Amino acid sequence: MIKAVIFDMYETLVTHFASPLYFGLQIAQDLGIPENIFQELWGHTDYDRTIGNITLEDALEDIMRKSECYSKELLNLVVQKRIDAKNECFEHLNREIIPMLCILKEKQIKIGLISNCFSEEVSAIKNSILFPYFDVSCLSFEQGISKPDKEIYYRCMENLQVNAEECLYVGDGGSQELETAEMLGMKAIQAVWYFKEGTQQPVGRKNNFLQAETPLEVIDYL
Fold it and tell me: pLDDT of 110-147, one tens digit each?
């Protein structure tokens, strides 16, 4: 019997691709750093930014100093544009997301969140319209670990007071999240409602997993 649904956040409950992007390319352009140089430096910070070792500000300041383009004003501009972009993601939800979460609440199904996220995404998530729906949130930046590490799943289940066999895990499939959920004994569903051709989304359909074409289809898998 399913007692809890654990969601991924990005490209599952929200998407970056329904609003203007502010990724490495756009940051590099604003900083006046060649994209290939910026992306190499930026990519080296991904893991540390994900597990809370460094913040967005720390990473950008280091890159700017190495590239000899640092100024406090420019740093603040880029940081704010990145924060604004992350916040805007929550203004373009699939129209079934809130109804789905409301139905889960009505059915007294616990709702968990496991998200690999950076410092600027933590604030966006916690200030969002979605955050009050979560009974438990495990954010990699705060937990010091990230998917697909099994420990972040265990922490979420422990706080939800459920075991793996009582959990439905729903995610777009990045970071081997579905494979880990299934290995632990959860029922794993790939969320495909935000998938678009021609985007930078990290994964496509994984045909070895059940798929939900719309958020409300998640209810059918309880």
Answer: 999 999 999 999 999 999 999 999 999 999 999 999 99
First to last CA, the chain: 8
Residue 56 carries which side chain, given as an amino acid letter?
Answer: L
| Overall pTM surpassing 0.90 (yes/no) | yes
pLDDT (mean) for 67-83: 98
Closest CA to 173 of 27, 7, 25, 2: 7
Q: Name the CA dihedral angle for 178, 180, 182, 183, rounded to a multiple of 10 degrees.
A: 160
Other CB atoms closer than 10 Å to residue 55's CB: what's the count?
Answer: 17
Decide if 130 contacts 90 (C-beta within 8 A). yes
Q: Which two tokens stand for residue 3?
A: 């007692």
What's the pLDDT at 26? 97
Closest CA to 162 of 172, 171, 153, 173: 153
Nearest to 189 by CA among 166, 215, 209, 219: 209
Q: Is the pLDDT of residue 199 over 70?
A: no
Residues in Cβ contact with 191 at an 8 Å cutoff, skipping those fewer than 6 apart: 8, 11, 12, 170, 171, 172, 211, 212, 215, 218
Nearest residue to 74 via CA among 36, 39, 121, 27: 27
